[in-house]
Design goal:
148 residues, 19% strand, two-stranded antiparallel sheet, 6 strands, four-stranded mixed beta sheet, 2 helices
């Protein structure tokens, strides 16, 4: 519940190593085949939330560049809910280059309109003192929702 309004949340970590392109590439990729098997389950979950008319959020490590033009996975999600809103890691700022754009937040139903403007932020995780590079190849996302 968020301000006494229901919010359904699905946290996921999808198959890696199929971050762009077709889900059925030539030559075949076991990674893409596994991702192709995962997508219908998420689509079904999105369709069920849309049918309920409830606010919902899907977030996590998509291991996929959803924002790329014509991405198959994003297209499948949008077919399940044409009003789906995508908050991409790369659009949040503060994430160092090289952290990719694989961590995302999808908002659907009433939640698509709950994002407080300017609240989206990436939170870089610097390595501990003396270590080389970053603590993680991911950059956590933060945003504020205000139910209306």
């Amino acid at each position: 519940m968020l301000d006494a309004r229901p919010l359904r949340v699905l946290v996921l970590h999808l198959k890696a190593f199929c971050n762009r392109g077709q889900l059925t590439p030539t030559p075949p990729s076991g990674d893409c085949e596994q991702l192709a098997r995962q997508v219908p389950h998420i689509v079904a979950w999105i369709e069920a939330r849309r049918a309920e008319g409830t606010a919902y959020m899907v977030l996590g490590d998509f291991n996929r560049e959803l924002g790329e033009s014509g991405d198959e996975v994003w297209r499948a999600f949008r077919q399940a809910d044409p009003e789906l809103r995508l908050i991409q890691q790369r659009e949040t700022g503060n994430c160092p280059a090289g952290n990719g754009g694989i961590d995302n937040i999808l908002l659907g139903g009433p939640a698509a309109g709950w994002v407080v403007a300017g609240s989206q932020r990436g939170i870089p995780l610097p390595a501990p003192s003396g270590a080389i590079g970053l603590l993680s190849d991911h950059c956590p996302l933060r945003l504020t929702l205000r139910p209306r």
